[in-house]
Amino acid sequence: MTWIWFHKLGSPPHFYRLAGRMTPWFAWPALLLCLGGLYGGLVTAPADYQQGEGFRIIYVHAPAAWLSVMVYSAMAVYAAVGLIWRINVAHALAASCAGIGASFTVVALVTGSLWGKPMWGTYWEWDPRLTSELVLLFLYLGYMGLRGAIDDTARADRASAVLAIVGAVNVPIIHYSVTWWNSLHQAPSVMKFGKPTMPASMLVPLLMMLLGFTLYFVAIMLVRARGEVLRRERGAHWVAEATVES
Amino acid sequence: MMHWLLMGGYWPYLWPSYVLTLLVVVLNVIFARRSLRAARAEVRRRLQMQRSHS
User: Fold this and answer.
1) Do A125 and A131 meet the contact criterion of CB atoms below 8 Å apart?
2) Could you count the other beta carbons within 10 Å of the beta carbon of residue A108?
3) Would residue A216 count as lying in a domain?
4) pLDDT per residue over A170-214, tens digit each?
5) How far is CA A130 from the centre of its chain?
6) How far is B50 from chain A (nearest CA, A)?
7) Residue A195: left (phi > 0), alpha (psi -120 to 50), or beta?
8) How does pLDDT run across A185-197, given as a tens digit for each residue?
9) A201 in contact with B at a CB cutoff of 8 Å?
10) What's the structural domain count of chain A?
């Protein structure tokens, strides 16, 4: 197996140009999928037999919660790649993930809280899923704080990468918290082995939203990473050419 | 329409969730674009300074 593509991706000028070309290919399908998912979730999906119309919060809560965990996993993988192979672009990608992941963790916590009030009778409970999601937010904030506290980029990359990798232990805890411990939060209904427990009329808009949010994240991450790469490479010759082109 | 907006009485929980999500989605787009623009502007400034010095 050839690893040329991997090393090519690690080249800042190649990544900068490729990311610029790829962004619209993620952004436009993301927009279309989210619009379709919103229409399906808010208009065509039937009300839940137990939760009534209130269940429709799932169409923003579940994608935000998915992004919060998926973005952290991506950030930890980029951090590990940057640390092991000393690839600067991987560190730039990890740094680009943090703000996006933190913002969607806040959305997951707030929308979950708003969903919890009518269903559980409380905005907050120190439930394993909610608590581990809150720990995830602190990990994101810690990662961003650590990066911001160290002036030297290379040292900031290494220190924050270690934090991101160690913090990845929280990812399976979030996922399995509802099965390992007694939890108010419902068990997985989409991301589980075997058949999902939702009817297609509810599930299809949710899957559209999940895919749409994922593509949206990739598009935003690429735009942020391009800026991060430019900042890191500002003294390089290719940067002058690239900024004249754009 | 009004019936749909009321969402079976769950509107005080449902619509703020959607508004917050939309806000975060839009803000992420704005911040990402602004960050890239700022990086480009910084590079252009450096280039201009280099040209003026040489």
Assistant:
1) no
2) 25
3) yes
4) 999 998 888 877 777 776 666 555 566 788 899 999 999 999 999
5) 17
6) 11
7) beta
8) 776 666 555 566 7
9) no
10) 1
| ipTM score above 0.90 | yes
Residue with tokens 């040329």: A4
pLDDT of B34 > 90? The answer is: yes
Residue A113 is assigned to a structural domain of this protein: yes
User: Considering the domain boundaries, does residue A18 fall inside one?
Assistant: no
Residues 6+ apart with CB under 8 A from A24: A219
Range of the domain at A101: 57-187+199-233
DSSP secondary structure of A143-186:
HHHHHHH--SHHHHHHHHHHHHHHHTTHHHHHHHHHHHS--SSP
Range of weakest confidence among A68-72, A168-172, A186-190, B1-5: A186-190
Out of B4, B21, B32, the one facing A224 most closely (by C-beta) is: B32
Find the distance separating the first CA and the last CA of chain A, reported in whole Å.
35
